[in-house]
Amino acid sequence: RKEVEQDPGPFNVPEGATVAFNCTYSNSASQSFFWYRQDCRKEPKLLMSVYSSGNEDGRFTAQLNRASQYISLLIRDSKLSDSATYLCVVIAYSGAGSYQLTFGKGTKLSVIP
Amino acid sequence: DGGITQSPKYLFRKEGQNVTLSCEQNLNHDAMYWYRQDPGQGLRLIYYSQIVNDFQKGDIAEGYSVSREKKESFPLTVTSAQKNPTAFYLCASPPPGWGGVTEAFFGQGTRLTVV
């Protein structure tokens, strides 16, 4: 099983739709979780961190389920500008004071007029 | 302002040449990573370093080499042994997993093209 898995998509949704992405992780020592957004031919940019209590930023809601080892991202009222690839990023403690950074392969979202 | 700087942004290489991509960070982070991304593909780990003077191979290390002589710097050399080096290269330097972060910990990337 891969360490961090995402549905690659693409997810094609109409404007105004609600879309949800999931990301599962296998390392139970994972401590920090993030959603990044990557536009074509650009570097990934931080969208939001994911906290155990869940967190919301405008139209975006992120949640963490430690028991089932997955994180989710919900986008409400999709805009054309939301079209991008969404990357799940996990940081896990790997012993001796070191941390391991792992990416999902990304989920591609296309919002259609 | 703290951040990660990659240079150059665009790089052209002739076949058979070695090239070195620069990654510098002033975030005082111990860990640094190099990833490769091909069009329409996810990020693949080339090399990573958790501490100065130490580094480990990632999933696709063949044809690449790195050094970590200083905490701030983690240069990546793409050698002539790399069969298909044309790609987008990203450097990352995440903080320890102490919780949420507000800064993005990627450089802007270097697009390498073999001509």
- Total DSSP helices of chain B: 0
What is the total tally of β strands of chain B? 10
- Per DSSP, what share of the residues of chain B sits in E-state strands of 2 or more residues? 35-45%
How many helices of chain A? The count is: 0
Measured as a percent range, the helix fraction of chain B is under 10%
Shape of chain A: globular
Specify the biggest β-sheet of chain A: 6 strands, mixed
Spatial separation of the terminal alpha carbons of chain B: 36 Å
H/E series of chain A: EEEEEEEEEEE
Q: Given the helix and strand composition of chain A, which structural class is it?
A: mainly beta
Question: What is the structure about, briefly put?
Answer:
Chain A has 113 residues and is an all-beta fold. Helices cover 0% and strands 60% of the residues of chain A. The mean pLDDT of chain A is 89.
Topology:
The complex is a heterodimer of chains A (113) and B (115).
Chain A lengths: L3 E3 L4 E4 L4 E7 L4 E9 L6 E6 L4 E3 L2 E6 L4 E6 L8 E12 L2 E6 L3 E6 L1
Parallel strand pairs in A: 2-11
Antiparallel strand pairs in A: 1-3, 3-8, 4-5, 4-9, 6-7, 7-8, 9-10, 9-11
Chain B lengths: L3 E4 L2 E4 L5 E7 L6 E6 L5 E9 L2 E4 L6 E3 L9 E3 L8 E6 L17 E5 L1
Characterise the protein shown here.
The complex is a heterodimer of chains A (113) and B (115). Chain A is mainly beta and 113 residues long. Chain A is built from no helices and eleven strands. Chain A has strands spanning 4-6, 11-14, 19-25, 30-38, 45-50, 55-57, 60-65, 70-75, 84-95, 98-103, 107-112. In chain A, strands 2, 4, 5, 9, 10 and 11 form a six-stranded mixed beta sheet that branches. In chain A, strand 6 and strand 7 (60-65) form a beta hairpin. Chain B has 115 residues and is mostly beta strands. Helix content of chain B is 0%, strand content 44%. Chain B is globular and about 35 Å long. Chain B starts with a strand and ends with a strand. In chain B, 35% of the residues are buried. At the A-B interface, strand 4, strand 5, strand 9 and strand 10 of A face strand 5 and strand 9 of B.
